[in-house]
Amino acid sequence: MDMKFKYFEVYTKNSRGLQLFTCQWLPFSSPKALVFLCHGYGMECSKFMRACGEKLANAGYAVFGLDYEGHGRSAGVRGLINRIDNIVDDCEEFFRSIYEFEEYEGKAKFLYGDSLGGAVCLQLHRRDPSFWDGAVLVAPMCKISEKLFKPLPGVLNVLTKIEDIIPKWKIVPTKNIIDSAFKDPTKREAIRSNKLIYQDKPRLKTAMEMLRVSTNIGDHLHEVTLPFLLLQGEKDIVTDPAVSKALYEQASSTDKTIKLYDGMCHGIATGESDENIAIVFSDIITWLDERATEKDF
């Protein structure tokens, strides 16, 4: 593939004084639009989402990624999410700082969220419903799948009482997410060998925050108004396809599209065969191209 973009890595500090890693894939020509990446739980942007950034940049988009606090190359306790709102704050601050550059004035701006990143996108949208021109939601975490993590009756109340006392404890039992999420053996092993990815058991506070935000989103699906493309594998057992269908049905958006891929698992953009991933990104780029053109002045 001929590379039609430049790649940059930049460290920045958030409002809490933590160093955060950011990266960007910029086409050599003026971009069609801007795409801001929100990665999944335990993941990172520079390696895990590299193919995504490259595909979108080669298609003419300026792509920007941020490693959340405690993820990838950013500072913080590995795998610890003290508050989902902190992640949303950091994404909002970084994404808006990019959009303020003069060369991007008037460009359409899209969110791209993978799994937990889908929840981050929806939270960003709720903060300012008119700001974003659309979102690509890849197996978004609108509700924690009960097949993956379901507290026993009465346990949830206990966990809520102790989460701030032992937030870092890796006491949450869960199945191996990498095995469950990524179907292609070669890509699965590449993910395992990526030392920037958090692969230990979820920390208590992290699990509680993800449960909390996904429940909150699930209760307010009707408040979603932005244009979105929702994509998911029908065999996904990490995030529930039934909840994605509920998002599509209940969202107030007038421009909404859902695509469910037969035989695919959770990592449709990162863990399937090259042929399947090509299908997914063809759908994504087609959707973006139609809306980037509409924004053109």
UniProtKB/TrEMBL annotation:
Cross-referenced InterPro entries: AB_hydrolase_fold, Hydrolase_4, MAG_DAG_Lipase
Serine aminopeptidase S33 domain mapped to chain residues: 30-269
Gene3D superfamilies named among the record's database cross-references: alpha/beta hydrolase
Top-level taxon of the source organism: Eukaryota
Coiled coil: none
Name the UniProt record assigns to this protein: Caffeoylshikimate esterase-like isoform X1
Organism of origin: Abrus precatorius (Indian licorice)
